[in-house]
Amino acid sequence: MTDEPKRPPTGPNFVSAQQVADHAGVSRSAVSRSFTPGASIGPETRKKVMKAAAELGYQVNDLARGLIARQSRLVGMIGTRPEVGFRAHLVAALSKALIARGSLPVLLNTGDTDVEMQATQNMLLGYRAEATIVLSGSPPRTILEGARRTGQPLVLIGRSEPGTDSLLADNATAAETAAQRLIARGARRIALLGAQIATQTIVEREQAFLAAIRRLGAEPRIVRGADADYAGGETASRELLGDGEPPDAVFCVNDLLAMGLIDNARCAGWRVPEDMAVIGFDDLPEASRAPYRLTTFFQDPAKVAARAIELLDRRQADPDAPPALVRLPVELVARTSG
C-alpha cells in the first residue's frame, strides 16, 4: 500500500520569521530586532539576517506588528458611493498620499443601511485602524461617535462637526462668483439646480448662491434632483424646462448635475449657452470635453488630500489640539457653457 501523494498547500505561503532565523543561524528575536529601527543588534548578525531574508523572500508582517502594538498603519476612508463624481478622484488622491506617508489606505463603502454602517465601524475598530477619513457628506453618527470614543484621529471632508477636524471647499465664495458671472452676462431668468440629499456642501452652495442672486436683484427658481448625480440632473431638468418659461442661466451645485441638465436640454432642442448658460462645480475631467465645455469651479483632489493628511498628522502629534476647520479656495475655470 503506497502513501497518497501530499497535496500542495493552498493559499499564500509566506515565509515566517522563524524560517529566516533558521536559515541565518540566529534566534527569532534577532530577526525581529533586525527589522526594528533603533533596536540593539550587532552589525554582523543583522547582515546575516538580511541576507537570509533576501534569499527566502521574507516580508515583515506589518499587520501583526500593528495588532501587537494595538495600532496598525491602516487608515480607513469611509464614504457612501465613493465611485461617484468628485469623491472617486478624491479617493485616488488620498490613497496615493497615504501610501507615500507609509499608511495602508482601506476604502469602505458604508452602504445605505444601519447594518452596513455598523459593519464598517466594527471593521475599522477590529483592525485597530490608526485614523479615519470620512469622505461622505453625511457620515453615519455611529462612525463619528466610535472614533471619538476610542480616541482615533478623525478627519471629515465636505462636512464639519463640533470637536472634529474638518476640511471643506470655500463654497460660499464660489457660489457668489457664479451668481455675479451669470448676472454680468445678462441672465435674468436664473435657476439653481441642487439636490434633495442636502449634505453640508450642497446646502452651503445653494444658500450662498441664492443670497448672492437676490442681492443682485433677481429671484431664482429652485429645482432639486433626488441625488447629486447625473440622473438627478436629467430628471430635475425635465421639471426645469417643461414648466413655464425656462431659465436663461442655471447654477448647478456639481458637475454631474450640470452634465445631466445639458444633455437633456440639448435633446429637447435647447442650446447651451445660447439659450441657457450653465455653471457647475468640481471640474471633473469630463467637464472639459465636448459637448459640455463646462464653466465650473476646480477642486484639486491632490491639494484636498494633502491638507487632510496634514490634519491627521497634526492630531496624532497633539491629541489635545483644538479642532481645525480648513476652507480650501477653489478656482473658476471659464469655458463656453456659461
UniProtKB/TrEMBL annotation:
Pfam families: LacI (PF00356), Peripla_BP_3 (PF13377). This is LacI family DNA-binding transcriptional regulator. InterPro entries: HTH_LacI, LacI/GalR-like_sensor, Lambda_DNA-bd_dom_sf, Peripla_BP_I. CDD domains: HTH_LacI (cd01392), PBP1_LacI-like (cd06278). Residues 15-69 form the HTH lacI-type domain. One of its GO terms (molecular function) is DNA-binding transcription factor activity. Keywords: DNA-binding, Repressor, Transcription, Transcription regulation. The keyword Zinc-finger does not apply. It comes from Jiella endophytica. It comes from the Bacteria.
